Amino acid sequence: MASSGINDAGPDRPASCIAAKAPRLQRKPMSAYFIISYDIVDFDMFQNYPPRVWDLLQEHGGELLVSDTEALQIEGERNMMHAIIRFPSQEQALACFNSDAYQNEIKQFRHGSTTNSQVVLARGFDPLTD
């Protein structure tokens, strides 16, 4: 199949390259997503975490998109808990994570009750603005 143009993705041109070639209509903050997974080892202690983090997410514009303890393992190692949280911008996501409330009052419940924790912050993709 012949290439249809400069914006075609392929093995030598990832989707991020396509975004660089897309016309820039208007610049808006890009959504950011916390992608989180961990194994819960102390359920009694963990019960303190969800209500506290929920309130903080609301204060910072966070939206819980996924909270799943029964995710289907497709590849690699599966943790017990998986969550995805969307924020309007990377700045708002980091403000939430770095807030005094999270760092000094809330995070301890997750750290003290889980193992194998992974937290990743990824930017959303919009070929028209990115």
From TrEMBL:
<protein>
    <submittedName>
        <fullName>DUF1330 domain-containing protein</fullName>
    </submittedName>
</protein>
<dbReference type="InterPro" id="IPR011008">
    <property type="entry name" value="Dimeric_a/b-barrel"/>
</dbReference>
<dbReference type="Pfam" id="PF07045">
    <property type="entry name" value="DUF1330"/>
</dbReference>
<dbReference type="InterPro" id="IPR010753">
    <property type="entry name" value="DUF1330"/>
</dbReference>
<feature type="domain" description="DUF1330">
    <location>
        <begin position="31"/>
        <end position="120"/>
    </location>
</feature>
